[in-house]
TrEMBL record:
The keyword Disulfide bond does not apply. The keyword Signal applies. It comes from Sclerotinia borealis (strain F-4128). This is Glycoside hydrolase family 12 protein. GO terms for biological process: polysaccharide catabolic process. GO terms for molecular function: cellulase activity. PANTHER family: BLR1656 PROTEIN (PTHR34002), CONCANAVALIN A-LIKE LECTIN_GLUCANASE (PTHR34002:SF11). Belongs to the glycosyl hydrolase 12 (cellulase H) family.
Length: 332
């Protein structure tokens, strides 16, 4: 059984000293990096309503052969208001590849994602290996799992989640009706692009997020400090198991179709769970997770539904302005 937050910090210190291969993080500000240095775990607890807690057992001894690690997070955000507009926590894993990142988006040839996890009510149980949507409904879970990439035309800025001008979110699973920004657009003139990867159809939604009025202490390190364009690829079905699935075609589509400039840098990559509400303890057991970025010639994505009336992204608007200015210079 998990103890109250004030007791968990003491346990975290004891766990680290007794068993150096794992560590327990139950506060909002600590983080932990795997022995190889490849991954850093952030609890990113942003709740301010004292409606619950979060505690994670993180494995420091990552597998350097498969480039994977594992962790287990238990949380409970049981306030009377489900408050789906903002996350309560975002337990996540950040990819540390200084030899590759930052990298121009058009130079990414592969971005394989591997993970095997289960989200279920209660405390950690090794016997549970899959997610039951109905069991999550019983405790009113509102959560989503996704991969996030931060981009900017400046390499250094692309590595700062708060200052990066662009964010790409590749959704993997969603529970409790959680949807991406831009999903509720009712414009009938928009033909949304879609791409099929490994039998899953991803649809593109575009939105703008404003700088947060909250402090970094409240919102964690990912609160946007500048206007941010958000591109969300949303799947037609949930999946909790991926084996080296290459998601780079979703990135390639964005620069080939000039949603983002081909020279835009990808500098920050993270994968995690957007946890917003649960009336009791819920555990996210990540039995395996791994990410990678490969430099090289990208594969062209085969997509559909991108018409002349599609949504205009920030990169496309910049390109249009440049073309117009060029026309004035040439013909003026």
């Amino acid at each position: 059984m998990f103890l109250k937050p004030q007791h968990k910090i003491i346990i975290a210190l004891l766990t680290s000293s007794i068993q150096a291969q794992t560590t327990q993080i139950c506060d909002s500000t600590s983080n932990a990096t795997t022995n190889s240095g490849r991954y850093t775990f952030f609890p990113d607890v942003v709740a301010t309503d004292d409606s619950g807690y979060q505690c994670t057992d993180f494995t420091l001894a990552d597998d350097t052969t498969t480039n994977t690690t594992l962790f287990t997070t238990t949380f409970s955000w049981s306030g009377t208001d489900a408050n789906t507009s903002t996350p309560h926590s975002f337990p996540s894993l950040t990819l540390n590849l200084p030899s590759i990142l930052p990298i121009p988006i058009s130079n990414i040839s592969l971005l394989p994602l591997t993970n095997n996890w289960a989200l279920y009510p209660g405390n950690p149980l090794s016997t549970i290996s899959s997610t039951s949507a109905s069991s999550l409904q019983n405790v009113s879970v509102i959560a989503a799992c996704y991969l996030t990439l931060y981009l900017d035309l400046t390499p250094e800025t692309s590595q700062n989640a708060s200052l990066a001008a662009t964010k790409i979110i590749i959704w993997q699973a969603s529970y409790g009706g959680l949807l991406p920004l831009g999903y509720t657009s009712t414009s009938t003139s928009i033909s949304r692009p879609s791409i099929n990867l490994a039998g899953i159809t991803y649809t593109l939604y575009t939105s703008q997020s404003s700088p947060s009025t909250q402090t970094q202490t409240t919102w964690g390190t990912r609160a946007p400090a500048v206007p941010q364009t958000v591109y969300s690829w949303y799947p037609d079905s949930n999946t909790s198991s991926l084996t080296a699935m290459d998601v780079s075609p979703l990135l390639n589509y964005l620069w080939r179709e000039v949603y983002v400039d081909s020279g835009t840098y990808v500098g920050y990559v993270e994968w995690g769970l957007d946890a917003r509400h649960a009336t009791g303890n819920v555990t996210w057991s990540v039995y395996e997770v791994g990410m990678n970025v490969k430099r090289g010639t990208p594969v062209k994505a085969v997509g559909g539904g991108a018409g002349r009336d599609r949504e205009v992204g920030r990169g496309e608007m910049v390109g249009l302005v440049v073309c117009l200015v060029g026309a004035v210079v040439l013909f003026g």
